[in-house]
Structure formats: C-alpha cells, structure tokens
Design goal:
This protein is an all-alpha fold. It is 83% helix and 0% strand. It is flat. The relative contact order is 0.09. The mean pLDDT is 84.
C-alpha cells in the first residue's frame, strides 16, 4: 500500500471514529435531557411502578426500605432507567444514522421498518407486563403467602424484580422481528419454521418458565403472547420474502432488458 493510500485509510478511519463519537454524545445527551424531569418526579415514578404490588398487598402491609440509602437510590435508579426508556428512539436513531451509509438501498428498505417495529414491540412488552401480568402475578403471590407471614417487600428488591420482568417481556415481544430476520437472512426458511411449530411452542414454554417466576400463571401469560407473536412473525416473514423475490425478479428482468 502506498503512502497516499495509507493516509487516505487513516483519514477515513478517523472520520468514522469522530462520527461515532458525535453519535454517542448525542445519545448520551438525549438520555441526560430525559433524566432531568425523571429525577424531579423520581418518587412519583416509583409510586406508579409499585402500584400493581401495593394494590395486592394485605391490608396494613406496605413496601419497606431495609437499607439506609435504598429510599433514595431505588427511585434514583428507576428515574435513570425511565430516562433511557424514553430516549431509546433517539439512541436507536443515532446507531442507525452511523450504520446506514454502509448499507445498500435494498437493505435499508427492510432495516427501517424492522428497527421501528422492534422499538414499538419492546414498549408493548413493557406495557403488557405492567397492566396485565403484574396484577395477576402479585395477586397469586399474595394469595399463596403462608399463614402468620406478612408480605412486606423491600423497595430495592421490588425494583430489581420489575426491571427484570420489563426486560424479559420487552425482549419476548421481539419474536416477530427475530422471525423476519431469520427468514430474510436465509438462516432458516419460512417453510422450516412453519413445520417446526410444535417444537417452537415447547421451546417458548420452556423459555417462559426460565424467565418468569416459578408459577404456571406467569409462565402461561408470557408464553401465549409469544406464540401469537411467532405466528405473526411467520406471516410478516412470508410477505417480506415474497416481496424480496418479486423485487429480485423485477431487477433481473430490467437487467436482461437493458442487456438485450
């Protein structure tokens, strides 16, 4: 490689690193801006997030703080997580803006809707967990509390539990995106996925048993939507593969016409 080529490569690398730095700074700035109101309303946010459990606690029972700092740190940590949650579209956009120039137009055509749908589906998973799963789950836990035992949960333990559940359900709702990506990349054919429905169903219930607390109710509440989303992913995967094949056939016909 000549000296001029080496300088060009170094200049290109530096420009990419500088752009990456700018994108990361914008993402961090978005999280920081979102964290300002979240910090101010940190206690209100914790009250909202803890509502499903507090509604199911026995009369007279409350959440407790077993550490000197947990009454401050738990709402503070929650505010940071909520800020990241709010700023996630901006963060994803900055990642996309950095990667997009290296993609072909055909790849961008599929990547944009997949990115948008993955963000929306993750949010849907979190909302599903809060409004539908938590009330049933906490009611079950409260009902199975042994006699002479008062259910009084530490606020830090509760926060860790619900954040884990939010993440698990958010990721679980990404099943359609995963199915479409598998089909578009050619790693697994749609026909093969369709034939493997039974194995997928068993795998989903096993995964739900691992991710959720050890009770059949929570496992079923996660597994059923995951399987429905898998079927939806199959439908979208068929459409995406069909569309890509049609585009490829059209391009080949245009190239043949131009050659002729």
């Amino acid at each position: 490689m000549s000296e001029s080529e080496e300088q060009l490569a170094e200049g290109t690398l530096m420009s990419h690193l500088l752009e990456l730095r700018d994108r990361l700074l914008r993402a961090v700035l978005a999280v920081f801006v979102a964290s300002i109101p979240c910090m101010y309303f940190a206690n209100n946010l914790y009250t909202f997030v803890s509502q499903p459990l507090r509604d199911k606690l026995p009369k007279g029972a409350t959440l407790i703080a077993t550490s000197v700092t947990s009454s401050f740190m738990a709402p503070f940590k929650l505010a940071l997580y909520v800020a990241v949650f709010i700023a996630m579209p901006v963060v994803i956009y900055q990642i996309w803006a950095f990667v997009a120039p290296g993609l072909y137009r055909r790849e961008k055509k599929f990547a944009v809707p997949l990115l948008a749908s993955s963000i929306i589906l993750f949010y849907c998973g979190v909302v599903f967990a809060y409004y539908l799963v938590f009330p049933v789950m906490f009611k079950f836990f409260a009902a199975t509390t042994p006699a002479n035992v008062v259910m009084m949960t530490d606020i830090s333990e509760y926060l860790s539990f619900v954040l884990t559940m939010f993440f698990c359900f958010g990721v679980a709702f990404e099943v359609p995106v995963a199915v479409v990506l598998l089909a578009l990349t050619g790693m697994v054919k749609v026909e093969k996925l369709t034939e493997s429905r039974g194995y997928v169903l068993i795998g989903i219930f096993v995964l739900a048993a691992i991710l959720t607390p050890p009770d059949a109710v929570s496992q079923t509440i996660m597994a059923v939507p995951m399987y429905i989303l898998f079927e939806a992913g199959l439908l979208f995967a068929r459409l995406a593969v069909k569309t890509r094949k049609a585009d490829q056939a059209r391009r080949e016909a245009e190239e043949a016409g131009n050659t002729g």
